[in-house]
Each structure stands twice: as structure tokens, then as C-alpha cells.
UniProtKB/TrEMBL annotation:
<dbReference type="InterPro" id="IPR011860">
    <property type="entry name" value="Rib-5-P_Isoase_Actino"/>
</dbReference>
<dbReference type="GO" id="GO:0004751">
    <property type="term" value="F:ribose-5-phosphate isomerase activity"/>
</dbReference>
<protein>
    <submittedName>
        <fullName>Ribose-5-phosphate isomerase</fullName>
        <ecNumber>5.3.1.6</ecNumber>
    </submittedName>
</protein>
<dbReference type="InterPro" id="IPR051812">
    <property type="entry name" value="SPI_LacAB/RpiB"/>
</dbReference>
<keyword id="KW-0413">Isomerase</keyword>
<dbReference type="InterPro" id="IPR036569">
    <property type="entry name" value="RpiB_LacA_LacB_sf"/>
</dbReference>
<dbReference type="InterPro" id="IPR003500">
    <property type="entry name" value="RpiB_LacA_LacB"/>
</dbReference>
<dbReference type="Pfam" id="PF02502">
    <property type="entry name" value="LacAB_rpiB"/>
</dbReference>
<comment type="similarity">
    <text>Belongs to the LacAB/RpiB family.</text>
</comment>
Length: 154
């Protein structure tokens, strides 16, 4: 079974959102792409977009998300307000790898004003190369994060 992915971009990120969405729709690892982002001429507050996407993931309606704003930081902070969600900005391959392998994060956040389009597309693709190993030494750290926000499932 493939990933169900929420993609979104605010007024500073919808361009990359559209590029990444097109890539994901061609990716055999992806079963469904859910577009919650803006399109040209639309406006909305990025915290509302990011929390809506994160809530879909928290409810089990999607597996992962790629959220894009100007820097990636605003959507990351917003998504992390949702119980059980682990989101972070990552603008290099090693960070994307560690986002999943060390932190079991469900949301990759990117900044359209920070990195080039081809790098953003590559990082989005790489995000689906990794699966968290619950038997790894990183599980204790992820459990500590989840215990803090009350989302730890025993």
C-alpha cells in the first residue's frame, strides 16, 4: 500500500506545491495526493492551512504531508501544534533522511523563498525513501516527544 500525502502551499509556496504535487502523482509509491493548498490569486493564513493538513494526518486520513510556505518555518510551527504530529523544515538530503529515521516525522516543510525548485522536488521525493524503524534506538526519543504531547500509544 502506498502513501496518502497531503500537499499544501500558502501564497508564498503554492508554486512549489504544484510542482511537487505533479511529481507525487507520477510516483508509484504514492496512492493519493490531497491538495489543501492555495492556487494563484487565493489567500489564506498559513497556520490554518498547516493545521488542517496536520489534522488529516493525525486522524489517519493521510500518512504524510509536504507543507510549503516562504521559509517552511511557519507551516512547521503550525503543524506541530496538532497533537501527534512531528513536522520540521529540511533543506538538505541528510536532514530529510533524519527527519524520518531519527524522528518519525510525518511532515516535511519546505521554503519556496529559501531553496530552488529542483532541490525542493528532490527533497520531496527523498522523503518517501525512508520508513521509521520502531526497533531503532531513536524510538525512545520519539516516545518521549509523544509522551509530552499526550500522543504516545502503548
Amino acid at each position: 500500500m502506498g502513501f496518502r500525502v497531503v500537499v499544501l502551499g500558502d501564497s508564498a509556496g503554492y508554486g512549489y506545491k504544484d510542482l511537487i504535487k505533479a511529481d507525487l502523482e507520477k510516483d508509484d509509491r504514492i496512492d493519493e495526493v490531497i491538495d489543501l493548498g492555495l492556487h494563484e490569486g487565493e489567500s489564506a493564513l498559513y497556520p490554518n492551512l498547516a493545521t488542517a493538513g496536520a489534522e488529516m494526518i493525525a486522524r489517519g486520513e493521510a500518512d504524510r504531508g509536504i507543507f510549503i510556505c516562504g521559509t517552511g518555518m511557519g507551516v512547521a510551527m503550525s503543524a506541530n501544534k496538532v497533537k501527534g504530529i512531528r513536522a520540521s523544515t529540511a533543506h538538505d538530503s541528510f536532514s530529510v533522511e533524519r527527519l524520518v529515521l531519527s524522528n518519525n516525522a510525518q511532515v516535511l516543510c519546505l521554503g519556496q523563498r529559501v531553496i530552488g525548485a529542483e532541490l525542493a522536488r528532490r527533497l520531496a521525493k527523498e522523503f518517501f525513501n525512508y520508513e521509521f524503524d520502531p526497533s531503532s534506538h531513536s524510538k525512545a526519543n520519539v516516545d518521549a516527544i509523544c509522551a509530552y504531547d499526550g500522543s504516545l500509544e502503548e
